[in-house]
Amino acid sequence: MQISVRPLQLADDAEISDLASAAVLSVEGRRGGGEYLELFHHLEGLHGEELTELLATSQREVLVGLLDGHLFAACVLRHDAAVLTVEALYVDPEAREVGLGAALMKAAQQRAEDLQCERFEALALPGDRHMKQRAESEAMKARLLVLSKALRERS
User: Fold this and answer.
1) How far is Cα 142 from Cα 37, in angstroms, rounded to an integer?
2) CB within 8 A of 39, min separation 6: which ones?
3) Which one has a higher pLDDT value, 18 or 48?
4) Of 35, 92, 119, 153, which one has the greatest count of Cβ atoms within 10 A?
């Protein structure tokens, strides 16, 4: 099995749309799930020009993880001059436990270093032990817990 990581490309539109739908379903009903995968919601059903616009956003990037050339994982990054944050990471259940998540985290950290960021951070849902363990394996430590309350329903 060959693992590779690269930026999302326009030709990935159908595969990323399917993966995004699976990611959204995987956290449906979990605390914080809607916010955690907000960008994955935007990736569902995007094609052509819409995907091009998303990819042109300067402070957001999507990396994809491939297994033998097939897209099985995605990682959403947000960055500014000081911090690169992994906003969401999803690996298809059929491709877990082979190193795709770790490869995406390493590529995200390398991107942070390339951008000369001061910090590399990752978000995780409450109780998401896999993401916590993945981050800790990269010598990351929990440093902030965000508490939230909805003030109105999403439209």
Assistant:
1) 20
2) 60, 62, 76, 87, 88
3) 18
4) 92
The pLDDT, as a whole number, for residue 128 is: 76
Report the alpha-carbon distance of residue 76 to residue 126 in Å, rounded: 18
Does 99 or 57 have the greater pLDDT score? 99
Cβ contact 63:78 at 8 Å: no
> One-letter amino acid identity for 38?
E
Superfamily name with CATH number, domain 3-137: Gcn5-related N-acetyltransferase (GNAT) (3.40.630.30)
CA–CA distance, 26 with 18 (Å, rounded to integer): 12
Cβ density class 115-135: b for 16+ within 10 Å, e for less:
eebeebbbbbbeebeebbebb
Q: How many residues does the chain have?
A: 155
Confidence check: pLDDT of 55 > 80:
no
